[in-house]
């Protein structure tokens, strides 16, 4: 296999809420939202995450979509430039309506970070290493 690109597709229940959450966190929109999805670019490599309405994404998944509030589906990791960025991002996530799963903390030998969930339960790891 030689894929030309990789991106993620996640299910959400409220496109306006999702668009506001990721916009409030400063992520760059990947085109304009429409009635089926909203999309954002993440990181310097502009990794694309599409957030589809659950009922739209369901047919393409060919199976049950996990409830991210009750089961872990995936965790994306966002790299921070320093510890101050980690602390600032934790405050921004809460202010935007995200749920801090863990407060910023030191773990391992050289990591500092936290875990949060967006309003639909999708988890992100934020850390500086």
From TrEMBL:
SUPFAM superfamilies given in the database record: Glyoxalase/Bleomycin resistance protein/Dihydroxybiphenyl dioxygenase (SSF54593)
Read off the Pfam families from this record. Glyoxalase
Q: Which PROSITE patterns did the record assign?
A: VOC (PS51819)
Which sequence ranges form a coiled-coil region, renumbered to this chain?
A: none
Instruction: Name all VOC domain ranges.
Output: 4-129
- Protein name as catalogued: Glyoxalase
What is the native source organism of this protein? Niabella soli DSM 19437
């Amino acid at each position: 296999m030689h894929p030309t690109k990789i991106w993620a597709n996640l299910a959400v229940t409220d496109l306006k809420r999702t668009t506001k959450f990721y916009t409030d966190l400063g992520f760059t929109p990947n085109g304009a939202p429409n009635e089926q999805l909203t999309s954002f670019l993440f990181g310097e490599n502009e990794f694309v995450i599409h957030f589809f309405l659950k009922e739209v994404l369901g047919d393409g998944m060919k199976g049950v979509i996990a409830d991210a509030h009750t089961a872990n589906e995936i965790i994306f990791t966002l790299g921070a430039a320093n510890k101050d960025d980690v602390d600032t991002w934790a405050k921004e996530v809460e202010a935007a309506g995200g749920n801090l799963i863990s407060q910023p903390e030191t773990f391992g030998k050289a990591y500092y970070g936290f875990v949060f969930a967006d309003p639909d339960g999708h988890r992100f790891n934020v850390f500086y290493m």
